[in-house]
Design goal:
The chain has about 140 residues and is mostly helical. The chain has helices spanning about 15-40, 45-70, 75-85, 95-115. It is built from 4 helices and no strands.
Length: about 140
């Protein structure tokens, strides 16, 4: 198991459902806080930088969970695009059909990533999170 804070900046190995859910909750809360702050005086260049940092972290968290499910982490880009389309403050730039379609497509993604267990054994991304040491030896 990797230390929980590292799920926000590293994307190799695997992560379980609980760490994934907690990571997503933190990132969604951060994104909502950035949006609120942007509406209350945060400079747009700073808001964009913060959104990009949260997006990078989201891609790392998604990659780790996708790895645990036996999939390539690159599928995380599709999930992030769907999430961006369905994000509540995207209503001005996104047609309602696209927002609704993205939200509907996120339902099976949520079921797959948040509710389904990871692969039990070793896969191409490493051992299951329960079999990884909390602090791997440094080389």
């Amino acid at each position: 198991m990797i230390p929980h804070i590292e799920i926000f900046w590293q994307s190799s190995h695997r992560v379980g459902r609980t760490a994934f859910a907690l990571g997503c909750a933190v990132l969604i809360a951060l994104r909502a806080a950035i949006d609120w702050w942007a509406q209350h005086g945060l400079p747009s260049w700073l808001a964009m930088g913060m959104v990009l940092a949260v997006g990078y972290s989201a891609m790392c968290v998604l990659s780790l969970r996708l790895h645990d499910r036996g999939r390539s982490g690159w599928w995380g880009w599709v999930v992030l695009i769907l999430f961006a389309l369905a994000w509540p403050l995207a209503h001005a730039a996104t047609p309602d059909v696209a927002r609704s379609g993205a939200a509907i497509l996120l339902v099976p993604v949520f079921i797959d990533l948040a509710l389904m267990p990871g692969q039990k054994g070793l896969n191409r991304h490493g051992p299951p999170p329960s079999q990884r040491p909390l602090f791997p030896p440094q080389s």
